[in-house]
Amino acid sequence: MEQWNQLRQAGLLPEGLGPPPRALSGFFPMGKPDQTLMFPETDSGGARETLLSIWEELGNLRRMDVQLLDQLCSLALEMGILQEELAAILEEEEEESCEEEEEDEETQREQEEEDLGAPWLATHLPDFEMTI
Q1: The Cα angle at residue 47 between residues 37 and 58, in degrees rounded to 5
Q2: What's the pTM value of the predicted model, to 2 decimals?
Q3: Where is this region: Disordered (predicted)?
């Protein structure tokens, strides 16, 4: 459940999602099921064996659930890191494209100024009107 806490601290848990179920908190009774369950003395051996196998399977399923939850938490943490890296890359690319656009605009202005140099003056002499 350490990874669950890391997810919470990183702010990656969806809103409204409470703590994990107690069954997945890592604590579940281990040992012999007959220490936890009460068997009547008149119980047949077949029912007891069936109950013991069910108890064992439940323990296995809980362990598997805990492992899966840990893996999901690990994946969520990795996805959070990847999101941050992607945001940084996109920000860099945006800055670079803005710089390139500014350079292109500056080059275009310089080109226009060169194009409007002496030939423009020769073909477009100022038009003066004088009134005497």
Answers
A1: 55
A2: 0.55
A3: 91-132
